[in-house]
Amino acid sequence: MMAAIVMWVNLLRGVVLTVVLGLLGVVVASAHAGGAEDGGDRIDTAFLQECIVTLQPVYDGTCEQYIAELRKELGRRGFRTASDLLEDYVEGGFLSGVVVLWGSQKYVLTSRHGLALAQGAEVELGGGEERIGRCEIVYSQGPTDLAVVALPDSYRGAGLPLDTMGVGKESELLVAGYAGFGGEPRWTLERNHRMLRTKAQGEGGAKKEKRLIEHDATLDPGMSGSALLIRDLGRESGVSLLGVNIWKATLYEGRSVAVPVNEVIEVLRQLDDTPEGAFDGAQFAAALNEEGGSVESWLSDGYVVSVPVSRVFGEYDCLDRGVRKHVAHLFNAGEGVEGVRVVLASALRRGYADAYTRVVTNGELHEVVRSEEREPLVVTHERGAWQVEELALPPLPEQRHYGLAHSVEMRGTARAGVKVPFYGKEGVGLALQFSYMQWTYLFFRIDGVYGKYGFVATDPMTDVTSEVRGHYVGLAPSLGVQLPVKLNAVLLLPYVRGFYGMHYSLQTKQEAFSYFRTYRAVPGVGVGMDVAYRLRDGLYVVGGVGGQYVVISSNFGGRAAKGVGLELSVGIGF
User: Fold this and answer.
1) Among residues 90, 85, 84, 91, which one has the least CA distance to residue 66?
2) Are 114 and 223 in contact (CB under 8 A)?
3) Which helix (H) or strand (E) holds 497?
């Protein structure tokens, strides 16, 4: 009996074991099938990380000083984005880059604004885990915000191939790079993005338009220069390079711009045809002499640095409204150095529109003549392209600037003044004035005032008339509009302002006055003229003369008063 029970137990155990093993086999098979299916859709992240690098700009002392001055001036004029971005890059910020294969050479593609005025770039793999070293910037002059950095011949790392691939609005896009600007680089791979549109970036004519890709990813700090990828099941990596991300759209969340691969290929072909360290002098000359052309892309960083920041913004103040609006847009987007290029290019076109250039092509000298003036604008390299270090554009012509100023360098004033009232028994008052101009035509001012007051009052209880005198202190905030006019180094600032003074009595001398109050309001309007003379960059001596009309409805409890007065002031502007 016991033997039969044992036999049945063993039989049941075998059946259960068989069923469990069968179920496990099904699960494992399903897992393998699923893994194979996922494997077909896999992205080789390890390979991508070998192709994405970080770059840190390397500056010399001259560039650092120039950027410091530029940063200060941009901040003074309210362009905080550009000022902060320049400061971040100088103080150790980084940007992403994409290693690509081009023949036997490997290049890093990145965003130009992150390497503005840099003498080279420190390139690192793995977010700083492996240092490749300092590399040369071989391209940064084109119409798009693209820079190319050459890797050393000894570099044996991976790189993404360059080939054009069609993309539709439903194609899945990916963004790969290192985020964490100003901190430690953090590897980032974002999926499931879509293209919004392609748009043209014009450079003076339809034939010169460059195409850009606009997509719905939001680039985090540090992701400028990151890779824009597209799913490609035909590659082992699972992706192909579609473009290089250059900028996040500043006015919209979830929009960024990338330079497509076909534009990158065009740039690399130019590098093959151009002597090392040079750019096309003929193209520069043609752009400079072309009506409405654009030359800012061809100005070397060395030439930018040679023009004082104060001179740049002096030229900026004289730009026509359309160009000034374009430059302000660049500054607001953070592209401080690109804005400077546009200013200098506009000044060159304006100052040398009637000069001629010498252009060397195929060993022959050609002259593009625009007038009878025989002063060469540019001396070119004999091979038809300028060596950047030899580029010697003449200094900008000194121009006298007269007329309405669309923007002013001076943003604030500190002055001492006197106020001379011509009403009642008021005495002369002293004032300390502080004004601030956030916008060119609008200013805020606050006056700290001290003076003597006096009036005749009648006590309603006793019907006794008495003379009241004393001293007061107070504040008088005001808001006004002005119309700046430039006369070379002199700035005229005619203005109209409204103010509201608040005076508090310090002491009184009276015979009898039981209804005396310690406070009075002094509203009014003023008109006048301030004159500022520029001593040096960012420093002015300022004087002003103006008239004011006040209405005092509650004169420390005495009779109401109204009338006109004169104000004079002198101080400094900054």
Assistant:
1) 90
2) no
3) strand 490-509
**b/e per residue 228-257 (b: at least 16 CB within 10 A):** bbbbbeeeebbbbbbbbbbbbbeeeeebbb
pLDDT tens digits for range 445-480 = 999 999 988 877 776 666 667 777 888 999 999 999
Residue entry with tokens 């600037």: 401
The predicted structure's pLDDT at residue 30? 39
**Tokens representing 26?**
């099904």
| Helix ranges, 225-335 (H) | 261-273, 281-289, 301-306, 309-317, 321-332
Radius of gyration of the chain (CA): 35
Characterise 273 by phi-psi region: left (phi > 0), alpha (psi -120 to 50), beta (else).
alpha
The model carries a pTM of 0.62
pLDDT digits (tens, 9 = 90+) for 261-272: 988 998 888 777
534 close to 491: Cβ distance less than 8 angstroms:
yes
Give Cα 502 distance to the centre of its chain: 41
Cα atoms found within 13 Å of the Cα of residue 454, Cβ hemisphere only: 13
DSSP H helices in 333-429: 336-351
Burial of residue 104 (number of CB atoms within 10 Å: 0-12, 13-18, 19+): exposed
End-to-end alpha-carbon separation of the chain, Å? 111
Q: Where on the phi/psi map is residue 262: left (φ > 0), alpha (ψ -120 to 50), or beta? A: alpha
